[in-house]
């Protein structure tokens, strides 16, 4: 009998503590405030699975979609595609080994 464990498949997409904060300034001398559009979202999406994001209006669904399609850069957190880092606050946008276009083409936003 074999004692080897089956290899765990690598996640297709993994988000770790994604955050997106937008600065808001009310007046010339007013201190800058932050709107936390997305604050600490983490998930793992396995190959062949579907991820549905549901929630109330204004809860950050579209912001998450913009981060996943790499339209925007997160304020915090990291995004991995097939084990390679694509977005992070320290490294900004990465090429994902030429897989960015595939990730964007596979992402669907439904309203």
UniProtKB/TrEMBL annotation:
<keyword id="KW-0067">ATP-binding</keyword>
<keyword id="KW-0547">Nucleotide-binding</keyword>
<dbReference type="InterPro" id="IPR027417">
    <property type="entry name" value="P-loop_NTPase"/>
</dbReference>
<dbReference type="InterPro" id="IPR003439">
    <property type="entry name" value="ABC_transporter-like_ATP-bd"/>
</dbReference>
<dbReference type="Pfam" id="PF00005">
    <property type="entry name" value="ABC_tran"/>
</dbReference>
<dbReference type="GO" id="GO:0005524">
    <property type="term" value="F:ATP binding"/>
</dbReference>
<keyword id="KW-0378">Hydrolase</keyword>
<dbReference type="GO" id="GO:0016887">
    <property type="term" value="F:ATP hydrolysis activity"/>
</dbReference>
<protein>
    <submittedName>
        <fullName>Dipeptide transport ATP-binding protein DppF</fullName>
        <ecNumber>3.6.3.-</ecNumber>
    </submittedName>
</protein>
<dbReference type="InterPro" id="IPR050319">
    <property type="entry name" value="ABC_transp_ATP-bind"/>
</dbReference>
<feature type="domain" description="ABC transporter">
    <location>
        <begin position="38"/>
        <end position="88"/>
    </location>
</feature>
<keyword id="KW-0813">Transport</keyword>
